[in-house]
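Possible regression after last week's pipeline update?

I re-ran a chain I had predicted before the update to compare outputs. Posting the input and the new output here so someone can diff against the archived version. Not blocking, just want to make sure nothing changed silently.
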Amino acid sequence: MGMMKFKVLSLTDAAAARVREILDGAGRPAAGVRVGVRNGGCAGMAYTMDVVESAPAGDDRIDEKGVTVFVEPKAVLFLLGTVMDFRESKMSTGFVFENPNEVSACGCGESVNLKPAQLPPVPV
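New output (post-update):
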C-alpha cells in the first residue's frame, strides 16, 4: 500500500567523502548539506549547496554513505534520479550533478537547463 518512494539523489563515494570533509571543516555542529536550485548561470538554473545546522522543515532527507544531504522542496522535481559526484581535474574541482532531467548544460557544468521530472500519476 505504501507509496513508491523515488530516490531524489544518490551520492558517489567521492561526493560522500567530500561532504564529510565540508561538514568536518564547518567549525560548527552541522546536520548535513542542503542542495537547492536557483535561477541563474548560463543555462538558466544553477545548483546551490549550503551547510545546515538542523534539518530544514519539508526537505527531503537522504542519508547515504555516512552523510546527510537535504534537498529543498522546490529542487526535488529537478533533481529526481540525480547522481551527485565530486571530481577533481586540472580545470575545476567540485561537485558534479549527473542529472537525467537535464535538457542542456553549459560547458562549465555549473549551470544547467532543467525540466521537472515526469512522475507517474499517483492513484487516488
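Follow-up from reviewer: compared with the archived run. The helical segments are 13-24, 73-79. Marking as no regression found.
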